[in-house]
Write a structure and sequence with these properties.
single chain, about 650 residues, alpha/beta, Oligo-1,6-glucosidase, domain 2, Immunoglobulin-like, 25 strands, disordered N terminus, binds alpha-D-glucopyranose
Length: about 650
């Protein structure tokens, strides 16, 4: 693929290559590989185009492309017949379904290892969870692991969790119960103990080219001038000195996480091999960690660059060819306008990542909870609603990471608030520094240079449960439980695949034991990553306990979600006009089915005029609340739906 070849002659060469390669690999004549052949032919044009856009000037572009095609054919052929059957059985856009509900968990902190997890599948079934995101499982050095996001071997399950065999056994058991599996690929970086990094340290130029390595600080200084810092407190700057080879290497996250250099096509191919290795383990949804960072360019923020999108599109094409049943989630926790681009734009609309995190709305939920005011949330919906049909959100209230208040200043200004003061209030409120705040969280990654900070803390602690328990405040406990369930309900019904963070279904408050572990104490995100105590979880079966109230409330919500197909993510979310600024109301409609979600984020009883239900199509007459079981007649415009503090209703139109 030299720079002088025209796209046409290039295509010809590639097709020729495929057919000779196919013959060599003996697949062309076989009936069973017809589908692969078809997918290869269908995907080849975009694949070539995308690859060429990125690598056309690279001296090894041609031979590396051939290696890429070989990799796709090889992994596709190695795919187990069982998985191929599952690929074929998955309906297009299977992942939009209201019947899916997920949980994200650390295997070791949840139940020690993969074998034990297999015996816990009944727990998920009881709760109504049929989709598991297992936090990073692959080998990662203890004490320098970033919760597994610093991988030293992409193909070896870390011994603390068990083995690859255990993982496959778990996946098979899950699939038998109609469950789905999500794992991570840490695409942006490796551990400094990965074989490639070790070879680079030893002076091997081939592997030094796998990373951004420099002889001195000249270029690093230039990069640093325009790149923000991700962990300014624990890992300031974006480069780390490597004494073994006397060079500087780019480390955007922690100093032990070396950024991979995707300008080198060999890195792309090596990582596509890992992506397909995970696909062939039976992963249904692959979480691409930190995709916003995968392309760096001096003089820019090195985030969200067009080449990062091209690489993701290229990876999507590879996956579509080799393992069509696996969907992709781009973990882009960036500005709302940027997040939306990870679904693809232009000719590639809905052809990049199938999922992204609705990080904007997650943060806005917390904004509403603290302020009791829904206006900033509504102002910021414009970008979120641009998500293309056929793609979906991961919706959530908490995950293993911090909460970043990443929505735009302009949205805050639009409703007459000062962005600096507004964010300061939210940070003070959730870190418990605002007078009267019930929350017990902490600031994460405070950057004195920019004034930025994010928020750590578990769902329960941020909702006030920890403080209320300490103070023996019964009313506070009741309100916290109410807030927890309202926050979950809001994220379960808004559209997307809800992902519960483990422990939140039981109401785990912050765990401060991380402070005694030197491998974790520098990172307060560990406060909201609990060690599960199964005696506590068993209290979910004791009527009236806090654990039972939260567990059974969460289970009930998931049950309601599963009974309402209109909650599938069919791009069918409409916000109600804000007749009461404390109440967030939306309509989910499809065909003649209509469901309203009504949430009072205020600490006082709220009154919502029935007129709010008359602005979108035919006026409903009767509404059934799936949460309380009550039925409501839609009243006159000067009459009201009355919503208790932090109360909510999931109202299905019965008549009208
Ligand atoms: C992602 C992970 C986060 C990790 C970072 C670096 O954002 O969610 O936990 O620290 O990537 O890998």
């Amino acid at each position: 693929m030299s720079t002088t070849s025209t796209p046409q002659s290039l295509n010809q060469r590639i097709y020729q290559y495929i057919s000779t390669e196919s013959k060599r690999m003996n697949f062309e004549p076989k009936e069973k590989d017809k589908d692969l052949n078809f997918r290869l032919m269908e995907g080849m044009d975009p694949l070539i185009q995308l690859y060429q856009n990125i690598y056309h000037t690279h001296p090894k572009a041609d031979q590396t492309f051939e290696k890429l095609i070989e990799t796709l054919i090889d992994f596709a052929q190695k795919r187990e017949p069982e998985l191929k059957k599952r690929d074929a059985a998955k309906k297009q856009n299977w992942f939009l379904s209201n019947e899916l509900a997920g949980m994200s968990l650390y295997v070791d902190r949840f139940c020690e290892n993969l074998k034990n997890l297999k015996s816990k599948l009944g727990y998920f079934d009881e709760l109504g969870v049929n989709f598991l995101h297992l936090m990073p499982l692959f080998e990662s050095p203890a004490g320098e692991s970033d919760g597994g996001y610093a991988v030293s071997n992409f193909r070896k399950v870390d011994a603390k969790f068990g083995s690859l065999k255990d993982l496959i056994a778990l996946r098979k058991a899950m699939q038998k119960q109609d469950m789905y599996l999500m794992l991570d690929i840490v695409l942006n970086h490796t551990s400094h103990r990965h074989e490639w990094a070790e070879k680079a340290k030893a002076g091997d130029p081939e592997f030094q080219d796998y990373f951004y390595m420099y002889d001195n600080r000249w270029i690093p200084n230039e990069f640093d001038a325009s790149m923000p810092e991700i962990f300014p407190e624990s890992s300031p700057g974006n480069f780390t000195y490597v004494p073994e080879c006397d060079k500087w290497v780019m480390t955007v996250f922690h100093n032990y996480q070396w950024d991979l250099n995707y300008m080198n096509p060999a890195v792309l191919v090596a990582m596509v091999e890992n992506v397909l290795f995970y696909a062939n383990l039976g992963v249904d949804l692959l979480r691409i960690d930190a995709p916003a960072f995968i392309w760096k360019q001096n003089g820019t923020s090195s985030q969200n660059l067009p080449q990062a999108h091209e690489l993701l599109r290229l990876i999507k094409q590879c996956v579509t060819i080799a393992s069509p049943g696996m969907a992709l989630l781009g973990e882009a926790i960036v500005a709302p306008k940027e997040i939306i681009k990870y679904f693809g734009t232009g000719d590639y609309t809905a052809k990049e990542c199938d999922f992204a995190y609705n990080a904007t709305h997650m943060a806005l939920q917390w904004d509403m909870l603290a302020t009791g005011d829904t206006r900033v949330m509504l102002a910021a919906q414009q970008d979120i609603l641009q998500k293309p049909f056929g793609t979906s959100w991961i919706t959530y209230t908490r995950c293993h990471d911090d909460i970043g208040l990443g929505y735009e200043d302009s949205k805050i200004i639009q409703v007459g608030k000062d962005p600096y003061q507004h964010r300061k209030f939210l940070k003070d409120y959730f870190s418990g520094n605002y007078p009267g705040s019930p929350s017990k969280g902490a600031l994460f990654s405070s950057n004195p240079k920019t004034g930025d900070a994010r928020i750590s803390g578990s769902l329960a602690s941020l909702c006030g449960l920890e403080k209320s328990l300490e103070e023996g405040d019964e009313l506070g406990i009741r309100l916290s439980i109410q807030k927890i369930l309202m926050m979950q309900a809001h994220s379960f019904f808004i559209g997307g695949l809800p992902m519960i963070f483990y422990g939140d279904e039981i109401g785990y408050t912050n765990d401060y034991s991380f402070l005694n572990d030197p491998g974790k104490s520098y990172d307060n995100r560990w406060m909201h990553r609990p060690m599960i105590d199964w005696v506590k979880n068993d209290r979910a079966h004791e009527s009236g306990t806090i654990e039972e109230q939260i567990f059974s409330g969460t289970r009930k919500l998931l049950g309601i979600r599963k009974s309402l197909p209109v909650i599938s993510d069919w791009k069918n979310l409409t916000w109600l006009s804000p007749h009461n600024i404390h109440v967030a109301g939306f309509l989910r409609a499809f065909g003649d089915k209509k469901v309203y979600g009504i949430f009072n984020f205020g600490s006082e009883t709220a009154y919502l005029t029935w007129y709010a239900f008359k602005e979108h199509g035919k006026t409903p007459e009767k509404l059934k609340d799936h949460w309380t079981g009550n039925e409501f007649e839609v009243g006159m415009d000067n009459e009201y739906l009355i919503i208790e503090p932090y109360g909510f209703h999931i109202l299905e139109v019965q008549k009208g």
